[in-house]
TrEMBL record:
Limits of the Spermatogenesis-associated protein 20-like TRX domain: 31-185
GO BP term, example: carbohydrate metabolic process
Protein name: Uncharacterized protein YyaL
One Pfam family cited in the UniProt record for this chain: Thioredox_DsbH
SUPFAM superfamilies found in the cross-reference section: Six-hairpin glycosidases, Thioredoxin-like
Protein's organism: hydrothermal vent metagenome
Database matches in PANTHER family: SPERMATOGENESIS-ASSOCIATED PROTEIN 20 (PTHR42899)
Amino acid sequence: MRKLFYLILFLTFSSCNAQQKPMNVKHHPYTNHLIYESSPYLLQHAHNPVNWYPWGKEAFEKARKENKLVLVSVGYAACHWCHVMEKESFENVEVAKLMNDNFVCIKVDREQRPDVDHQYMDAVQLLTGRGGWPLNCFTLPDGRPVWGGTYFPQKQWISALTQLSRLWKTEPQKMIQQAEQISQGIRQNNLLRLSTADQPFKKEGIEKALTLWQKHFDMKWGGNTGAPKFPMPSTYRFLLNEYYHNQDKSLLHFVELSLDKMAQGGIYDHLGGGFARYSTDSHWKVPHFEKMLYDNAQLLQLYSEAYRLTHKPLYKQVVYQTVNFLKRELLSPEGGFYASLDADSDGGEGNFYIWTKKETDSLLGEDAPLFNAYYSITASGNWENGKNVLFVQKGLKEVAETFHLLPQEAEGKLTASRQKLFDVRSHRPRPNTDTKVLTSWNALTISGLLSAYGAFGDPLFLDIAEKTGNFIRAHRMEANGKLWRDRRNKKEWVPAFLDDYAFTTQAFFDLYHYTFDERWLLSAQQVVHYAQLHFYDKATDMFLYAAGEEGPAIQPKTEITDNVIPSSNSAMALVLAQAGVYFENDDDSKIARNMIEKVYPALLKNLPYYSNWALLLNSYLYPSQEVVFAGKNALKLNREFERNYTTALVAGSLGKSETPLLKDRFIPGKTLIYVCENKTCKLPVKTVKEALLLLRK
């Protein structure tokens, strides 16, 4: 058994299966079962000589019938090493034959089927202590994992395939025993360690947790110490929330430092706007160049909230440039947003974004020295092979003085230079666009756009958000509140998961918040009610990630800890707390409270990975406030109000309303603002200034 376990650790994974017959497709000697899918990532593999199947019953039935191991190979369109492994192994006819003869091979788009990714990532992390993509996991014909890994060079991949196929033919019982051990380990790891103690919420607890976290603050470059560095929007949003309540200026300083350094770093696209997924170093300089919708959606919200507190011009610039990027590069004609831009283009990673000094000198002429100095461009290159990533290390004033210019003169020249390079770049071979339209990521984008609308009042932001909201209602939502995550092909849909429900409910609440159109409230109520009926687990007071499975399952997953994207349970707890107030539903409020109580001890031990939960916790540690606008000028006053940072829940109506917060608030001929705390409202006021004073008391 030990021998098999170490053999499995030695191996390391990737793709699989079948018929190598040439198809009647122009210019393609091979076509497999992925040709009928809609995912761009799966379609990239549709003409591999590997006989790939999509995730589903057909592949596992074939594996059982032929008594073959299954390869579940998981990746995504913007994944650089996924492309590398495809070129080295999956496009190689001899390697494909080895895979097809001995395995049934399944390709999975992790963004389309995160439930499948969760299952097999747990297995690989248990086996190897690490994870990543491409994720390659070998399973028994019933789907139970026996061995796996991430990226494999071709030689190592062939060795893994050969040894696994031989083991299955000669010692199948040992592999079955191994699969059972792995499955037991996964079940053990997935057991929820939730608190059952009645531990009261205390501000002192958060203060101690913050002190522990602050030891890992990078006070030179922002973010946490070490590399790589990921933007973690929910962590900074919590710190802004905490600063608002306790006025600890060190927290605001750290958030500003982090946001400044990200916006100045190579992780930010200084020519076209938008952020890459992460920085490979500790100072935000060299990105992993893929640009993801979910990152930019959340960073849009973060920079908009930070602007409300600081009014920094840099944050406004980042917001407007990021919206322009989203609109220009990712917005579909139907109103939904595409998933991502690839890291690779023109045969290499980041080629679309990088420059040589020779190029900038030639294109910018007399303005090149200023541009090169400001963006750290050198003849030897600030990255590799003489290439440069645009990266700001010195302030504009300091660089301007070097060239005997006023800061505004230098900025004018830099703006013109950026436009020149942007125009040239637009003619380069472009990174591929992953045209999946994922419901949860679109919902995050709606919330980001609306936060930007609140901060800056630009009607374009509201218009795009409303169109995307209408897209979800028209193309991803059923009348009973059921959602779909994505379209799988012309006939089939991908089921929605808990994050789709939680983020969509929040997006609909936000649309109501900024429009006072009660149809959005009704839609939010339908979606959150459907999620409660189909995902809620009464035994744990938490929600399962998936309501049902297509194909084999190890154990239902419950997502608790926050990461780059907040966990689906923390997001659901937040929307349930809001639903409890909007609809005067005590059951929703009780579930939200129970959920935060269950994670409270873990939150105090590891606050950065419970930061979205901590936003909810603060609504219990500090007074819960609502601001209600009633009257014909309600929207106008709300726009003025939203330019300020607050944590209040907002409701409003231009006329009579039966919504609980608004009932009997409307007085003809007047527009009044009610500031309420814990369901008790103070006397109404007429101006935003008065309302803000009442909130701060």
